[in-house]
Automatic annotation (TrEMBL):
<comment type="similarity">
    <text>Belongs to the glycosyl hydrolase 22 family.</text>
</comment>
<dbReference type="GO" id="GO:0005576">
    <property type="term" value="C:extracellular region"/>
</dbReference>
<dbReference type="InterPro" id="IPR019799">
    <property type="entry name" value="Glyco_hydro_22_CS"/>
</dbReference>
<dbReference type="InterPro" id="IPR001916">
    <property type="entry name" value="Glyco_hydro_22"/>
</dbReference>
<keyword id="KW-0378">Hydrolase</keyword>
<dbReference type="GO" id="GO:0050830">
    <property type="term" value="P:defense response to Gram-positive bacterium"/>
</dbReference>
<keyword id="KW-0326">Glycosidase</keyword>
<keyword id="KW-0929">Antimicrobial</keyword>
<dbReference type="InterPro" id="IPR000974">
    <property type="entry name" value="Glyco_hydro_22_lys"/>
</dbReference>
<keyword id="KW-0964">Secreted</keyword>
<feature type="domain" description="Glycosyl hydrolases family 22 (GH22)">
    <location>
        <begin position="88"/>
        <end position="106"/>
    </location>
</feature>
<dbReference type="GO" id="GO:0003796">
    <property type="term" value="F:lysozyme activity"/>
</dbReference>
<keyword id="KW-0081">Bacteriolytic enzyme</keyword>
<dbReference type="Pfam" id="PF00062">
    <property type="entry name" value="Lys"/>
</dbReference>
<dbReference type="GO" id="GO:0050829">
    <property type="term" value="P:defense response to Gram-negative bacterium"/>
</dbReference>
<dbReference type="InterPro" id="IPR023346">
    <property type="entry name" value="Lysozyme-like_dom_sf"/>
</dbReference>
<dbReference type="GO" id="GO:0016998">
    <property type="term" value="P:cell wall macromolecule catabolic process"/>
</dbReference>
Amino acid sequence: LVFLGLALPGTQGKIIPKCEMVGILRRNGFEGFEGTTVADWMCLVKYESDYNTKAYNNNGPSRDYGIFQINSKYWCNDGKTAGAKDACHISCSKLLNDNIEDDIQCAKKIAREAHGLSPWYGWKNHCRGRNLSSFVRGC
């Protein structure tokens, strides 16, 4: 997945507040999942989508969708990406609404298959190996 600096204009979704997102991740079993922490996931979401449920990024041949920036080449079907695998069996457009339950299931599938968060460039470039305690502090 490619790092997303800013969501494209007109794609403002719900910006999930920090502690609300921490709670969502904790309730959905992200702490310890595939050797990751909630702080890892919070950092990933910050640098991939800036907590925006409708974040979208065009990578040329593929696109990234939603709060976890799930890619259309491998994980979802946008009807535009040649040779798409659709491993999460979901329409990419469903990753752009404020209900992130399906986003969570697909993100966990990606992390499970990769045994961690290495598919996300936002996490690799900004989070891996760093002290991420500020992402969960106070929550």
